[in-house]
Amino acid sequence: MMNKVALIVVSTLVAAVSLSGMGLPSTVSAEALPVPPGNTSFINDDFNGITDAAVTSTSTVKSIAGYTANVTGPNGSVSITSSGKDGIPFPSDALLIRDEDGANGSGTVGSGSGSTTITKGLGTRVSDGILTVEQDMYFYGPNNDISRGRNVIKLTGGVNSQTNMSDTVIQVDLKGGKIAWVDTGGIYTNITPANLTNAVWYHLKAVVNLNTLHVDYYVTKGNDGTLVGELREQPFYNRTLGSRAGDFAAIQSFSASTGGTTAENIVLDNVQVYKLNAPPDAPVGLYGIGGDRQAALSWSAAPNAVTYDVLRGDSQEGPFTMVGQGFTKAASSSEPFRDAGLTNGVTYYYVVRAVNPYGTTDSAPYAVTPSGERPAPVPPQGISMTARESAVMITWNAVPDAATYTLKRSTAKEGPYTVVSAVIPNTTTSYYDTGLNADQSYYYTLSSTNIAGTGEESPPLEVHPSTPLDEPESLKATAKSGQVDIEWKGSEGAAVYKIKRSTVSGGPYTTIGTTVFTRYSDSTVADGTTYYYVVSAERASARSMNSSQARAVPYTAPDGAPSAPTGGVVEAAYGQVMLRWDVVSGATGYTVKRATAYNGPYTQVAETKRAAFTDSDVSNGTAYYYVILANNPFGEGPGSEPLIATPSRVIIVAQDGSGDYRTVQEAINAVPANQTERTVIYIRNGIYREKVIAPANKPNLSFIGESRKGVVITYDMNVTYHPGLQTATFELRGAGSTMENFTVQNSAFPNKDTNGVKGVGQALALFVSGDKMVFRNINLYGFQDTLYVERGRQYFHNLYIEGTVDYIYGNGIAYFDRSEMKHVGTFGGYTTAASHDQTAENGYVFYQAKKTRGTTSLKPYIQKYGQAGTYTGVWDDVWDLELQGVSKTNSTVYLGRPWRPYGNVKFVDTWMDAHFYSVGWHNWGKVENESTAVYGEFGSTGPGANAKARVPWSKQMTVEEANALTVQRVLGGTDGWDPTLTGVFAKPISVPGEHNDF
């Protein structure tokens, strides 16, 4: 099962072991695996033959197998086990860290929030060299849930202190189903890009370099040694450790534990902690070039090396003489080691020596011949320049013998040119130049530099960054036989329009024509085929993104036949779908056709003389698509746009007892677990003071409010007074669930300490953890962390959300379509805190959004219901932005910061008020996030838009990049999900204030 040897093969960190030709074990070894040669072992436990009794919360003996156990919950224990989940046998005994208190993602398990911890000392303090931790791991939790946080490795000791032995040096957790390391700020960095599998063995290796204060992590599968994740050169738990001279860490103990509020189990086997007492690996990648009486060398970093020496000889066999000593990092092509005073025409041989406290290892020799005739490198070729708003992206082909590149810029072709960067390393073949003026021509040249000097500059290339044009609006497509006529509202400043078409909703689209007019006829179509059209505007130096999409199906209709019906309205109830549409001039009757897919095939279900029809031959839980065609004595005309509805069971929630239940939670509890048919929970107007949990085992729930502001679901849990618990007012976990037409709020107040009253901190309104969820016409009110999209794909249409700090955050792939985000804090903050995986192409996309600022909508609720001593405290007018005269132009808010390194956020065609910092984005205090976070904008407008001043590590997107961000392409995934085709869900047949004219 476990394959530790395979991991050692993967890692190059132990130089003294040669594993070539070794057989790889496929099961747990019956004996403890040997510590690799050249190492000193501190812990080496396989748990075989251990007869110690299990430790529980009531045990008097608190040790087992040499580990101290601390169990605080009644449903926790530490014991030796020979089998795992559901009694699956292990090949050998292992250590079970059990905790079934607290809650998991599918509901409450146990009765409390206990935790289980095991700890073992190393028997010494390790403060230098290389310390390696290896262990086999197997996870399982109730309902197959292993998503919750658990600490699988923690090394503790002292940090810059001879007396403090409890500082965390490294900590690795199972978080969100992935293995990740965590820092002092609670920020997780994933080691495994994908989720682990329940009840499967994995192997974790952490190589801790106490000299450089960095760690390399590796995770492999236990059955075959497949590498499932690695992360190198990560800082210690305290990221700032090493920033000051004399910083050090000393490791003294190993531990693992469950989380305080989770219901989880960890199984560990073959736990090893050992210290490298062997020389470093040999440096590789040694490369040198000769110049006039000198040589320049570079090489790759060698595992386990502390310093490097450079030696020179007259032959490949030596002897070699020291010419450089004690370098703390490998030399690069942009910062090479230079050896001067040489003789031109003579060949010299160099080796690089890796050094650590246990010895030295030399690289293979490399020959260099200095020459005064060495030519300077040629300029880069294949230069490409892409204009963006106030920025230019320059790319080029690598020059083989270049050490660095120099980029210059001018506003005139003849110059003068100024240096943009003279130290672009040879490993980089692109540069993003920011802070440019829109509608200004720029000229760029590139040159290459090496030890022989700087070569000629490339010919100047012109590029013209510009502000995007507004996209065309009100696109309409009218189908005829063999033709589709298109018209639209033009864009100011446009010279021409490009017409694009696709047979797939959301594109990608192909250009089929260009015109200077605001109309176009496409006669290259086939009758019966569905087409999707968009139009973009252009002029010489600027373009727009695509317009909204229009659909058309060419249709051959007899002369005199009526036109397609319009004004269609559809409603659903239990066991029926009701349709109505506008009367078509000249029509004597109508045909209703139905399908179970948007593009058909459609089958006739009715003929009617009225402009209405009720379909009672339907199955609850099935989505139906309807097309209506008008007819008269001349024949049948073209079909209408499809109408979509899903009939289903409807549960009514009403506080006055007139419904099925009085609370939302009671209605959820009444739905059977694991049913696949959709159920609607219809909520009548009222303020529902309850914490609502819709668990993962209840998918396909649709929550529909009687009115958007009339239905309010409110609660006031918060992190200050409920630490470690999920504070969300509404937790929605079931895949395929939807919400529409009501308000969810967390009224915990105030967010920050105010006039002596302690702030409540994080207090979520909505927690979302499920795939393919749709939210329409929803209000979310809160202060800190209002919306948590933990995972899955979510579509938000016409969302209104308020908050102050990180009020949209998490790992979900979320599309915000025409939504408003309002900052309600009197202080600064961050709109988003994304935490996406490295593999995510997109994270959050905001399309045609509004970003505003003002007083919280919770004010009247807090004024009415807030009380001293409660979590909904007494309203304080210091939080009224209008009363306090808080300026909307005070630039104290960021568009976002990366909660995890690969946070991914893009704003397309968004209006921004003036409360944003001009730089736009924040790196969360970690420079390394600037190279991993993906932040983009296209066509931002309003006083808070400032493409020229944005941080250079964000990007102004191109038209092509913005056009790719359609709902269908962002959220489609492998199953082609299109949330815009959700349609309507069932409502009670008789809804107060509404009329059903069927």
From TrEMBL:
SMART domains, per the entry: FN3
GO-annotated biological processes: cell wall modification
Signal peptide start and end residues: 1-30
Any GO molecular function: pectinesterase activity
Domain of life where this protein originates: Bacteria
SUPFAM superfamilies membership: Fibronectin type III, Pectin lyase-like
Record CDD domains: FN3
Classification via InterPro entries: FN3_dom, FN3_sf, Ig-like_fold, Pectin_lyas_fold, Pectin_lyase_fold/virulence, Pectinesterase_cat
Record protein name field: Pectin methylesterase-like acyl-CoA thioesterase
Domain Fibronectin type-III: 376-470, 561-650
GO CC, alphabetical: cell outer membrane
Region (Disordered): 453-473
Taxonomic source organism: Paenibacillus prosopidis
Gene3D superfamilies recorded: Immunoglobulins, Single-stranded right-handed beta-helix, Pectin lyase-like
